[in-house]
């Protein structure tokens, strides 16, 4: 049941009815515009907090189809050769064979030193790695050669 002493009845004739200066609490001005209006102005803190990519221009597209090569250095090869069991060699004079292709490596680089003679199977090899292995008395079997 309605009663005649509601708050609106009390505020009749007061022009703004408790909402301050003229024009407050009318239409879209009090809410700062409709929709996404003011995102670069008074709603900037909202953009930073909740939609940081709203104004992002994503023009740079990285090139597709680049294949990353899985590389290994000589110093890691020495550690792998040490872990290969001596039982895999048939005679004591036979060199330890390391198949890097089977381990998923694509290229052998020459960082580090090697003293153990090894037979290394690898798809490709740098000149410095090839030279260092040959100086240690080993050989490199590549797909290139």
Q: Can you give a write-up of this model?
A:
With 145 residues, the protein is an alpha/beta fold. The chain has 2 domains: 16-61, no CATH class; 71-142, Ribosomal Protein L15, Chain: K, domain 2. It contains 4 helices and 6 strands, in the order ααβαββββαβ. The protein has a 3-stranded parallel beta sheet with strand order 1-3-5. The protein starts with 6 loop residues before the first helix and ends with a strand.
Shape: rod-shaped
CA gyration radius, whole angstroms = 38 Å
Helix content: 10-25%
Number of distinct helices: 4
Low-confidence stretches: none
CATH architecture of the largest domain: Ribosomal Protein L15, Chain: K, domain 2
Mean pLDDT: 85
Instruction: Output the structural class.
Output: alpha/beta
CATH class of the largest domain: Alpha Beta
CATH topology of the largest domain: Ribosomal Protein L15, Chain: K, domain 2
Largest beta-sheet characterization: 3 strands, parallel
Element pattern in H and E: HHEHEEEEHE
- The fraction of residues in strands falls at 5-15%
Strand order of the largest sheet: 1-3-5
Q: How many domains make up the 3D coordinates?
A: 2
What is the end-to-end distance?
99 Å
Features:
single chain, 145 residues, Ribosomal Protein L15, Chain: K, domain 2, three-stranded parallel beta sheet, 6 strands
Concise synopsis of the structure shown:
By secondary structure, the chain is α/β, with parallel strands linked by helices. It has helices at residues 7-10, 44-50, 74-83, 127-135; strands spanning 71-73, 96-99, 107-109, 118-122, 124-125, 139-142.
């Amino acid at each position: 049941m309605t009663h005649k002493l509601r708050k609106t009845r009390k505020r009749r004739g007061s022009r703004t009815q408790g909402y301050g200066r003229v024009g407050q609490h009318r239409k879209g001005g009090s809410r700062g515009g409709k929709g996404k209006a003011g995102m670069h102005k008074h709603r900037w803190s909202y953009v930073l907090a909740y939609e940081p990519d709203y104004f992002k221009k994503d023009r740079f597209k990285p090139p597709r189809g680049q294949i990353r090569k899985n590389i290994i250095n000589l110093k890691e090869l020495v550690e792998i050769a040490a872990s290969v069991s001596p039982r895999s060699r048939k005679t004591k004079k036979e060199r330890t064979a390391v198949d890097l292709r089977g381990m998923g490596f694509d290229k052998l680089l020459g960082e580090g030193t090697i003293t153990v003679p090894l037979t290394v199977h690898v798809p490709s090899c740098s000149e410095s790695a090839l030279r260092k292995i040959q100086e240690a008395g080993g050989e490199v079997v590549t797909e290139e050669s």
